[in-house]
Amino acid sequence: MLSTRHLLGIKQINAADIDLIFRQADHFKEVLNRPIKKVPSLRDVTIVNLFFENSTRTRISFELAEKRLNADVLNFTSSSSSVSKGETLIDTVNNILAMKVDMVVMRHPSPGAAVFLNKNIPASIINAGDGTHEHPTQALLDAYSIREKLGSVAGKKILILGDIMHSRVALSNIYCLQKLGAEVKLCCPPTLMPKHIESLGVEVEFDVKKALEWCDVANVLRIQLERQNIQYFPSLREYALYYGLNKELLQSIGKEIVIMHPGPINRGVEINSDVADGPHSIILDQVENGVAIRMAVLYLIHQARIGVKSTI
Known about the structure:
Elements: H1 15-32, E1 46-51, H2 57-68, E2 72-77, H3 89-97, E3 103-108, H4 113-118, E4 124-130, H5 136-150, E5 157-161, H6 168-179, E6 183-187, E7 203-205, H7 208-214, E8 217-220, H8 236-243, H9 247-253, E9 258-260, H10 273-276, H11 283-306
Parallel strand pairs: 1-2, 1-3, 3-4, 5-6, 5-8, 6-7, 8-9
Helix pairs in contact: 1-11, 2-11, 5-6, 5-11
């Protein structure tokens, strides 16, 4: 059984929890490859997807995972709700819980929103991204995809390349990969590297070629212009010139590197199409694995919520 009945962040779970999620995801990935892709694991469980920020992949992935588990699903977006009239987060959620909701999957622009919600309502909370803080299911599916491709995560050298400062994916990946025994290095322009990030036990490198020569896997992050209130580099063209991944750069490294990206991709900025769609890219595998990982998280959180031990 998981050590928690919530998934607020990778920081709050342990390596045994991650291993259990991965083993459960293995089972659900087999289910997803059957002619009938549904199981009754969450029948009569009601889940609300509470999204206060725009999302495509994460929201669809969670909704598909919930429906594959036969849960009753409610979808909520703030733009079409009473939030636009001034309703608070607590009021919104309490109104939803009055409808007897069991679990809440929430994305919110404020760091710590999932923790705040957990302190104020009785339902199980799954963090689908809170501001620039954490995105735990993305980190889990990223690590799971590395495990699937390379056999294990322990001992692997993982480079996180891109907008580290504004990324919730980066922090969750750092926590997850380190708990599984990987080495982590960060690379981006100095203006996008958070201060004191090395206190998390990661290395920092500003030379892209040196960073790529070091790593086994490069997880490329999007430049998040929507979160940048000042200009951190001269132009997207200059960023692409110095930090963008392209076929010529990878060929100059002289070794094969696994390429990942959590999406959405800014083609021609942080990564070129010949790399994103190339033979060493596992970007679409990440999307497929996202459904299996989220099925596993939903199922195991429900088991922990009702006090039932998983049979995996």
